[in-house]
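Figure 2 data, in text form.
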Amino acid sequence: MNILLLSAQKPDNTGSGVFLKELARSFAAAGHRVCIVAGIAAEDEFSFPAGIDFHPVRFETDALPFPVVGMSDEMPYRATRYRDLDAGMLRAFYAAFDAALDKVLAEFEPDIVFSNHLYVLTAHVVERSLGVPVVGMCHGSEIRQIRKNPLERAAIRRGVRGLAGIMALHAAQKADIVAEYGVPEALVQVTGTGYNREVFCLDSADPQCRGERGQSLVFAGKVTAAKGVRSLLRSLELLDDAAGVRLNMAGGYATLAEYEDIQAQAQAGSAQVVFPGRLTQTALAEAYRASDVFVLPSFYEGLPLVVVEALACGCKVVVTDLPGIGPWLEANLPGAPVWYVEPPAMRNVDEPEPDALPAFEQRLAAALAEAFAAPWTYCDVTGLSWDALARRALEVTA
């Protein structure tokens, strides 16, 4: 098949970007011809494996004189918030993607289109009536965005209802999609996420070394308050031996000012915290393998890929018990060494009530203590590879 993948965002840097890029790689490995159209900055350069063509839509140019749009208000790169788009910017956005699509449709002749996020670009592509099935890939951030931002809301819902199929990460997200966009349940298939089994895996010494890692933690994601990192740092101070805890806080940041403030908070605490910045997949896998516990105390997530990657590398996992995550993991990885932390009461979609944070941090500290004390056990996640997800994705419209 000729498979076209679309994204208004960069085809890496974020969970949804990695999702798109890895899905493309698996399609190509299975023998399909693959083309990606995605937004990037003027100076960005991307390379993809053989069998994948890339047609970038460059922002910060004369045609698109503003940074790449971001589905989250805080992105790990310079980005334009959707809520800041005016009518002229939106027209330029549509025109730039239309030009790229026209070229690809003429030269590549796709048999199916997979579009990242149930939002502005996906709805616009459906309205164009390309003559081939368009499948929407939901990540959760677009549901948060459409609830907070009235931009093109009616047009987005209308476009999403015209999709040939929708991929959801888990059952709770499927219910949100049905409620928010007014689509029939049969249109939405729970396909989950995937991971790169060649990169994220145990090494031969792991089973013997796991007991020697002590109180070593790794976090991977945007280093920002919305990911719960401030609460994580405070929770470490509640542990019996906070000074003996080592935390690798890997990831980019939303704003430099917030990042430096979080670094200052860590420096003032007792735990040993390092900030290596964004890591390559290979380096991130090494960070997982060097740690006993992976922690993700986020206040909002779709289905975090990093949890599966960390389990694949032998980490125990402590994660906020957000909608859909626990049931999906328990259905696909029964008995996985995962500790779920009840989230705090929320003020809105991704902002906790300040008064609820101390109790959340107590629960987080208790879960970390339990995870540190628990023996290491092997968790087989190979059934959740990207190749398996690619096969499920092609069945969405079957």
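Caption note: The radius of gyration is 21 Å.
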